[in-house]
Amino acid sequence: MELERFIFLTVDGLARGAVYAAFALSLVLIWRAARIVNFSQGAIAMAATYIAFVVTSMTGNYWLGLVAALLGGAAIGLIVERGVMRFVSPVNPLNSVIAALGVLLVIQAVVGMLFGNGYYPMAVPFSQEPLPWLAGLSISAYDLFVFVCVAFVVLGLAVLFGKTNVGLRMRAAAFSPELARLLGVRSTRMITLGWMLASAISGLAALLVIPTELGLNPHATDLVFVYAFTIAVVGGLDSAPGAVIGGLVVGVLLSWVSGYLGATLSPVAVLVLLLAVLLIKPGGIFSVTKERTA
Amino acid sequence: MSDLLTLSGVHAGYGPVTVLHDVDLTVPDRSITAVVGANGAGKTTLLRTIMGQVRPTAGSIRIGGIDLTTVKVEDMVRNGLALVPEGRGVITELTVDENLRLGGLWRRDTAEASRTLSEVYELFEPLQNRRKSAGHQLSGGERQMLAIGRALMAKPKLLLLDEPSLGLAPRITAQILQLLGRLRDERGLTVLLIEQNVRSALGIADHGVVLNLGRVVAARPAAELAADTDLRHTYLGF
C-alpha cells in the first residue's frame, strides 16, 4: 500500500513536472533571447488556452484547438514583443519586469471582460483514468499524451537550436546581438522569433495542465507560472536541460509534499526551494561559469 | 586602380562629442590600406562609422556606387563588407564550426558556402582540429584566425580589421599580416586595417593613412610614410 502510494505520487509528479518543464523552457527561451524574465508568460499561456477553448467549442475538435493554442500563443508573443517589450529601456532590468507585469494585468483584465471569471471545464482527448495494463504505475493515457507532447517540444528545440541555421542565428543573436548583426543576422527579428516560440510552447503547456486542475479561468496559470519560474531559476535561467530536469524534479517533489504533508504546503515548499537555491547557488544548479571577455 | 571604398567629408561621433572631423579616405581596389595613429585618434570610430554602428552626421561613405550611410548594420555584409572586430570578436559560446558557419549564413547558396568553409579550414589549419571546441577554449592567436576566417566566410569585397595584432605574440602578428598580403595577391581581396602596431602595419600595407585627433593628417604610399621620420616623430611617437 505504501509503495503503491509512493509510485502513484511519483508518476503523477513526473506528469505535472513535464508540463512545468515545458513552461520553464519557455521562460528560458525568452531569457536567452532577450535577457528578460517574462512575468507575463502565464497570462500569455492562459490567453492562448482561451483561444484553444473557443476553437474546440466551435468545431468540437480538440486537435484544432491545440493548433490554435500554438498559433494563438505565437501571435500573442509577437504582439507583446513588437508592441511593448521592444520599447522597454534595457538600462535597468526592473523596467522589463514592470512592463511584463503590466502586460500580465492587461491580458487578465481583457480575458476577464470577454469571458468572465467563471471556471470552464475543458475536455481532454484521452482518458485520465489509470491504464489497466499499467495499473501498477497508475499512469493514464492522458499522462502519456502529456509526456509525448513535452518530449516533442524538447526534441524539437534541441534540433532547432543544435542543427538548423535559424537556431544558430537565434543563439548568435542571444549571446552577442551586436556581433551577430555585423555578421548579417537580423538580431531583432530573432528576438521576436524567440518570443513567438516561447509563447507557443507556454500555450501548449497551459493547454495540457489546465484540464487536470479546476478548469479555465483568467487566473488558471498563476500558480503554474510560479512553479515554472522557480524551476527556471533552480535550473539556471540560461540552461534548457536545467529547465527540463528541474521541471521533473520539482514536479515529483511537489507531488510528494502534497501527498505526504498536505496539499496546502506545496506552494510553500516551492518557495523554500527557490530560497535555498538563491542562497546556495544563485546562478542555478545547472549554471556553468563561462569566461566573459569583451 | 579604381577605388573600392570612398569616404568624403565624414563627421561622426557619439552624441555631442564629434570624434571624426571631415575625414576623406579612399581604399583602392585590391590593396591593403593601413590607418595608423595614436590611442584616441578615432581609428575604431572610423571602422564603426563605415560599418554603420555609428552614423555620420555629415559626409558620405560609398562602396562601388552604393551609399552606405543609410544601410543597416546587418546588411553591410550583403554589400561586401566584413569586419574583424577588436579583441578577437568571437562568439565564445559557439563552437569554431558554428562561428564560421555563421559568417556565411547570409549567403543563399549553401553549396558555395560549404566550399568556402573548407577553404577557410585549409587557410587556418590549426582550426581544423578544434572544430567542435567552444570559442572560449581557443588561444588568442586561434581566436584571431577564427575571427578572420569567419569574415572570409562572407566572401567580402572589403575586409576591415580592427587592431588584429592586439595582445598577440609578434610571430603570430607577422603570420596574420602576411596572410592578408597573400589574400590580396591571390584573391584580389581589398583590406582596410587599423593598427597601433605602426611598423608592421606599414610594412605590409600598400597605402598608409595617419589619423590624429579625428583628422586625416597624411595619406600616402605606406613605404613613404614609414620613411618619413618627421611625421613618425610627430604623430606616431617613434
Can you give a write-up of this model?
The complex is a heterodimer of chains A (294) and B (238). With 294 residues, chain A is an all-alpha fold. Chain A has one domain (15-221). Chain A is 72% helix and 0% strand. The termini of chain A are far apart. Chain B has two domains: 3-80 and 156-236, P-loop containing nucleotide triphosphate hydrolases (Rossmann fold, 3-Layer(aba) Sandwich); 93-155, no CATH class. Chain B has nine helices and ten strands. Chain B has a six-stranded mixed beta sheet with strand order 6-7-8-3-9-10, sandwiched between helices. Chain B has a four-stranded antiparallel beta sheet with strand order 2-1-4-5, with helices on one face. In chain B, a hairpin with a 2-residue loop joins strand 1 (3-14) and strand 2 (17-28). In chain B, helix 2 packs parallel to helix 5. The A-B interface holds A 165, 168-169, 171-172, 175-176, 178-187, 290-294 and B 51, 53, 73-78, 83, 85, 87, 89, 91-94, 98, 101-103, 105-106, 136, 150, 154.
What's the layout of helices and strands?
The complex is a heterodimer of chains A (294) and B (238).
Chain A (H helix, E strand, L loop, with lengths): L1 H33 L6 H19 L2 H22 L9 H23 L25 H23 L1 H11 L1 H6 L4 H23 L12 H14 L4 H22 L4 H15 L14
Chain B lengths: L2 E12 L2 E12 L3 E5 L6 H8 L7 E6 L2 E2 L13 E4 L11 H9 L5 H14 L1 H4 L11 H14 L4 E5 L7 H18 L2 E6 L2 H7 L2 E6 L2 E7 H6 L1 H8 L2
Parallel strand pairs in B: 3-8, 3-9, 6-7, 7-8
Antiparallel strand pairs in B: 1-2, 1-4, 4-5, 9-10
| CATH-defined fold name of the largest domain in chain B | Rossmann fold
Number of helices of chain A: 11
- Can you tell me the CATH architecture of the largest domain in chain B? 3-Layer(aba) Sandwich
Which radius of gyration of chain A do the C-alpha atoms yield? 19 Å
Strands side by side in the biggest sheet of chain B: 6-7-8-3-9-10
Oligomer: heterodimer
Largest sheet of chain B: 6 strands, mixed
Helix and strand pattern of chain A = HHHHHHHHHHH
Beta strand count of chain A: 0
End-to-end separation of chain A in angstroms reads 60 Å
Beta-sheet strand percentage of chain B? Answer: 25-35%
In helices, the fraction of residues of chain A equals over 70%
Strand content of chain A: under 5%
Could you list the spans of chain B in which at least 5 consecutive residues all have pLDDT below 50? none
Order of helices and strands of chain B: EEEHEEEHHHHEHEHEEHH
Low-confidence stretches of chain A: 290-294
CATH homologous superfamily annotation of the largest domain in chain B: P-loop containing nucleotide triphosphate hydrolases
